[in-house]
Amino acid sequence: MRLRIFVVGFFLAWSFSGSAPNSSASSVPASRLGHLRRGINLSEWFAQVYDPKGYTKEHFETWTTASDVALIKAAGFDHVRLSVNPQPIMDAERRGAGQEYFGYLDAAMKMILDAGLAVELDMHPDSDFKARLKEDDFVERFADFWRTVAQHYSSSAWDSERVFFEILNEPEMRDRYRWYGVEAKLVAAVRQAAPANTILAPGANWDDDYDMIFLEPLRDPNVVYVFHFYDPHIFTHQGATWGAFYWHWLKGLHYPSDAANAAEVAADLPEPIHRMDVIRYGQDHWDGARVEAEIAQAADWASRNGVPVVCNEFGVFRHAEEKDRVAWIRDVRTSLEKHGIGWAMWDYSGSFGVVKSKDGKRVWDRSTGDALGLRAP
Question: Is the pTM of this model over 0.85?
């Protein structure tokens, strides 16, 4: 029996890190890790809805349909990360309409699971919600909400092998020690209600790779640790109107980085400090080797701690030139797979998407799919 436990633990850590671990703290079944190899984020459905009408019945029933889910499955994805804003559900519960909201979410979950996909149920609130996690009373309220959600989706009606609970998307908490305590509280609440399901635990702030590797593994062994990878943001978010203000000025910045190209792009920026940022990008030799050096650190952390990790967000805003965008996606995906790290690209149909809109329909983007190593559905 001892030999079997050691072998299973060794396999789990090796399969996600590419090297033998010093310890084996994880009890996540290999079968579950197998559901988290290649995924896609379903955004703007149960979160990031900024239409004045808000979260409506029509939106829930039409934004992502059975044909979308069928396309995702046919392309070769094995799971989706379903972003859910907890605030509208909590508001609905206060109005006594919680069951109606859960009905919409139940239908979405069932549609995904019936297609043979796994689901990362990702709590994905707006920034003002996350700012309140500095208050102990609000942490308790959120923990109680998580108990309700975890109890609902851990019942016998749902498949615990394929339903994963992600504590919080990008906590935006600069105090990493504070976040570690908050996360431990939320994980404990989920575990009280869902003894069998695997939990996904992020690092603090924006959950970049360096936020994750700051963490000490939690006491709960049935946890997969997650990180996001968009480095360098100056390339992946060029043209974006959120984040750093000057990003919206950027256009035509290449990947791999090139000093002459960066100097040309920098010349159009009004502020010298941002011109310096762009010129530095050109000098920093961002290419496949640099991406590999970054991701290898996450793999090393997983190996040393004997725990599995997954990168459940990476991608490039479509403002970047197509050849550069797909080159970056390919380099990140191949590096993650080299280290046995499962992934989920951001996103399905949004501004980073793997599908495009054509004549009012969503069509597969072959160049993005090829970069992900997927077949055209």
Answer: yes
